Every structure is written in structure tokens, then in C-alpha cells.
TrEMBL record:
Pfam families: SSF. Belongs to the sodium:solute symporter (SSF) (TC 2.A.21) family. Catalyzes the sodium-dependent uptake of extracellular L-proline. Gene3D superfamilies: Sodium/glucose cotransporter. One of its GO terms (molecular function) is proline:sodium symporter activity. CDD domains: SLC5sbd_PutP. It comes from the Bacteria. This is Sodium/proline symporter. It comes from Thalassotalea marina. GO terms for biological process: proline transport.
Length: 499
């Protein structure tokens, strides 16, 4: 059985590795706010790929998704398919153009700044509104990671859930405050490797540990996967998760930071390979885990802890300790990205433009670090609700970003007639649709529309239609960067997709 000392040793070693990365990044890439928030646009393809993947998947990859597969079996595969396809399209449609345009548009460092400069307005209303949406939904998103951390420490270390939340936020805040974007990206690269190994090893060893006469009929705790019984509304709802990729600031900011748009095809191949293997491993961890629990007559109070349980039961204590560190890695990779994006939005899009006098680079750097701490504290307070579901919190934040920003990002890059008024109306409409969909009780039992269909697709559709209709009724601006971008991008885009 798993022992506390081995788990503690593994996590402590992992913690010191992250601190080392933070110190290294602080000395090499935090000379100004541009380096602190975007790594100076010098990040390699492999680090970009695994950083985007690890920051995307977070604790839900090792807890939320296995827990969903534990309960619903192969029905959860539709969610996995939607995510992989969405990530592929994101690399094809968004990554190359966004990397080129954000540099041409006066070196935009944040997504709200990109929106503002896209419409030739330094302090456009879209910049402030999108910043507020980022702060709102990222606070929820960060809280989901802290919930996963609290559950991990409670289940694996017999530590209070609340102290688990504190431990998680403390560790991730230290190296994020120290090293900024480079520390987050490099740590994500290491964390992605650890996650991949864990998500292959755990389901394989669990499957080999099952009795030879076990038949996977998916009965009992796992619903039978039967084509005749598939509810297509549910399938479409799960597939629609893929739409969210176009509007996730913590993912698409990786495209902005890569050292060259020409390296994006390499990043795409690495990232999609990692993602496909990891998601398959997560789904089968839940499916095989459910059958393992049936065959061994074990009980599990929380399905989202099935990965933790299998790690403890099936592996040598020291290996189990490193697999628990993999969960911590998944959790912290996303939290650190979210803290940094929230901080960048607060500083670059709010403080910098609404301060009484223009702050110096040194002041911006200090405020950026301070904002990381502020967002971490607020998210921790939300995460103190021990009954929160990791997947539920993630799904709400994912839908919010996908509906508010997804259509705008695509139209900003691909539609010349987009206007500032259309963008502003679309962002607000998408965000409000998601908030209504997930929070307003419309059914007799008090449940919201999200209990029947995921909020992302309705919000995405409303946002897209609103943006197009309002844009057609208003006048689009002209910006030198837009013209230059349109003239040169055919060659740039062709070269970045020729590999």
C-alpha cells in the first residue's frame, strides 16, 4: 500500500524542481513586463506544444475526465473527440495568423490588447470588457484547479481539504511570481511529460491486474455503450467542447509566444500527439478503474479520485508518489497559466491605461507579480467549497471563454468587415448567454438549461450572430497593421503550413 513518506518525498522533490525552474526563469526572462508576460516571444516549438497541452488539460485530465468515464463509460469518448478536433482546428485557423498579427499590431502582449489594436483603438471598450471577462472566468477556472489540489492532498496525504487548497496555491504562486511566462512554460513542458507517462502506465497496469475472465460489457457502474441508445443531443453537447479552444486566452497566448510562426506545424504535431495519447489514457483510466472496483469489491466515495486510488493500490509507493506528483503537475500547470493571464490583463489592459500617470517598466513588473497574488487569494476563497466538482467548474469557465472570445478571435483574423461595435456586442452576448444558461433555473425541478445541453454551443452561436449582424450595420476601421497583415499573410501562412 501507499505510504505517506514516499508521497511526501516525491512531492517535495517536485516542488524543489519547480522552484529551480522559477529561479532560472527569473534570472533569464524577467527584465521587463514583455518578457515576464510573454517570454519575449522566444519559446521553442516543443515547449509551446506541451505548455499549451498541459495548461489546457489541468487537473480535470487526471481527475475530472477519469471520473466522468468511471460513471458514464464510453459516452465520455465524445468529449475527448471534440477536444482533439477542436485543438487541431485551433492550430490550423488561429495559431499562424495570431502569431503574426499580434507582433505586427504594435507587439500586442495580451488578447484584450490584440482586440483593441485590431480596431485601431488603444483604449477601446472591447479591451476593458474582455479584461473583465478574463478576470471573472479565470477566477472560476483557477478555483477548479485548487479544488482538484485540495482533493488530492485530502485523499493521498490525509490532509485537510482546506490545507490542501492552501498548499496547492502556495506552491504554484511561488514559481509563477518568480519566473513569469518562461517559468510557467518550462514547468508545463516537464509537467506534460510526467502526465503522459502516468496516463499510459495507470490504465495499462490496472487492465493487466484484472481477472482474466472479466468481460467489458460496461454494465453496473458504467452504462452500456449502445449505438441504438445513444442520445444524439448529449453527443453534440459533448462534441461542442471543441469550440472552446478558439477563445481560451491561456492556450492561444502560447501561439503568440512561440519563437517563429514557421515552427507552429512542429508544435501542432507534438501537441496533438501528446493530447490524443493523454485523453485516451484518461478515458480508459475511468473505464478500467470502474471494472477494477467491481472485481475487487472496493468502494469509492468520489469518482474523481479513481486515478489516485489506482496509483496507490497498483504501484510501488515511490512510483505512486510520482504519479500523485503528476496530478499536482496537471493542476499547477493550468493554475499558473491562468494566474499569469489574469495578471497580464489586470496590468496591461486595466492598470497601465487607467493609472494617473504612465508607470515605469519596473512598476509594471511589480504590479504584475502583485496581481498574481491577488487572483490566487480570491480563487482560493472560492475553492474552499469542498463540495465543488472539478469538471463542473472547468466546464463553466471553458464555456464562458469559448462563447465570449471564440467567435471574436476567428472573425478578427478571418473577416475584414468586423467592427469594434460588433466585437463588443458579440463578446457581451456570448458571456451573458453562458451565464444565463448555467445559472438561471428554468425547469420545474430548479435546474438550469446546462443540465440538458452544454452552454458553450448556444453561447458561441449567439455571439457569432450578434457580432456579424452588428458589424454589418457599422463601419470597420482601418489600421496600418491590418493592411500590412493582409498583404503579407498569404505567404506567411503558406510557409507555416508547408511543413
Amino acid at each position: 500500500m501507499f505510504t505517506f513518506s514516499y508521497a511526501t518525498l516525491a512531492v517535495v522533490l517536485y516542488f524543489f524542481m519547480l522552484v529551480f525552474i522559477g529561479v532560472y526563469a527569473m534570472k533569464t526572462s524577467t527584465s521587463d513586463n514583455s518578457e515576464y508576460l510573454l517570454g519575449g516571444r522566444k519559446v521553442s516549438a516543443k515547449v509551446t506544444a506541451l505548455s499549451a497541452g498541459a495548461s489546457d488539460m489541468s487537473g480535470w485530465m487526471l481527475m475530472g475526465l477519469p471520473g466522468a468515464a468511471f460513471v458514464s463509460g464510453l459516452d465520455s469518448i465524445w468529449l475527448a473527440i471534440g477536444l482533439v478536433f477542436g485543438a487541431y482546428v485551433n492550430y490550423k485557423l488561429v495559431a499562424p495568423k495570431l502569431r503574426v498579427f499580434t507582433e505586427l499590431a504594435d507587439n500586442a502582449l495580451t488578447i484584450p490588447e490584440f482586440f483593441s489594436k485590431r480596431f485601431a483603438k488603444e483604449n477601446a471598450k472591447i479591451r476593458l470588457v474582455s479584461s473583465l471577462i478574463i478576470i471573472l472566468f479565470f477566477t472560476l477556472y483557477t478555483a477548479s484547479g485548487l479544488v482538484a489540489g485540495g482533493k488530492l492532498f485530502e485523499s493521498a496525504f490525509q490532509l485537510s481539504y482546506y490545507w490542501g487548497v492552501v498548499a496547492t496555491v502556495s506552491i504554484v504562486t511561488i514559481y509563477t511570481v518568480m519566473g513569469g511566462f518562461l517559468a510557467v512554460s518550462v514547468s508545463d513542458f516537464v509537467q506534460g511529460i510526467i502526465m503522459l507517462i502516468a496516463l499510459v502506465a495507470v490504465p495499462v497496469v490496472a487492465y493487466l491486474g484484472l481477472p482474466t475472465d472479466i468481460v467489458f460489457d460496461f454494465s453496473g457502474t458504467v452504462e452500456q455503450f449502445d449505438w441504438s441508445a445513444v442520445q444524439w443531443i448529449s453527443v453534440v453537447s459533448l462534441l461542442s467542447w471543441g469550440l472552446g479552444y478558439f477563445g481560451q486566452p491561456h492556450i492561444i497566448v502560447r501561439f503568440m509566444a512561440i519563437n517563429s510562426h514557421k515552427n507552429l506545424p512542429t508544435a501542432k504535431n507534438i501537441g496533438l500527439s501528446w493530447m490524443t495519447i493523454s485523453i485516451i489514457g484518461a478515458v480508459f483510466t475511468g473505464i478500467v478503474g470502474a471494472k477494477f472496483m467491481q472485481s475487487t469489491h472496493h468502494a469509492l466515495d468520489d469518482p474523481e479520485t479513481i486515478f489516485i486510488f489506482l496509483s496507490q493500490v497498483l504501484f510501488h509507493p515511490f512510483i505512486a508518489g510520482w504519479f500523485l506528483a503528476a496530478i499536482l503537475a496537471a493542476i499547477m500547470s493550468t493554475i499558473s497559466s491562468q494566474l499569469l493571464v489574469s495578471s497580464s490583463s489586470l496590468v496591461e489592459d486595466v492598470y497601465k491605461h487607467y493609472a494617473s500617470k504612465r508607470p515605469s517598466e519596473e512598476q509594471l513588473l511589480k504590479v504584475s507579480r502583485g496581481c498574481v497574488l491577488v487572483v490566487a487569494i480570491v480563487a482560493s476563497i472560492i475553492a474552499f467549497d469542498a463540495n465543488s466538482s472539478v469538471l463542473s467548474l472547468v466546464s463553466n469557465a471553458w464555456a464562458g471563454f469559448g462563447a465570449a472570445f471564440g467567435p471574436l478571435v476567428l472573425l478578427s483574423l478571418w473577416w475584414k468587415k468586423l467592427t469594434h461595435s460588433g466585437a463588443l456586442a458579440g463578446v457581451i452576448a456570448g458571456a451573458l448567454t453562458v451565464l444565463f444558461w448555467i445559472s438561471v433555473p428554468v425547469f420545474a425541478d430548479g435546474s438550469a438549461l446546462s443540465s440538458q445541453f452544454y452552454a458553450l454551443m448556444p453561447g458561441f452561436i449567439v455571439s457569432t450572430l450578434t457580432t456579424i449582424l452588428v458589424s454589418r450595420a457599422t463601419t470597420a476601421p482601418a489600421h496600418p497593421a491590418i493592411n500590412h497583415f493582409e498583404e503579407t499573410h498569404d505567404l506567411v501562412y503558406a510557409s507555416s503550413n508547408s511543413k
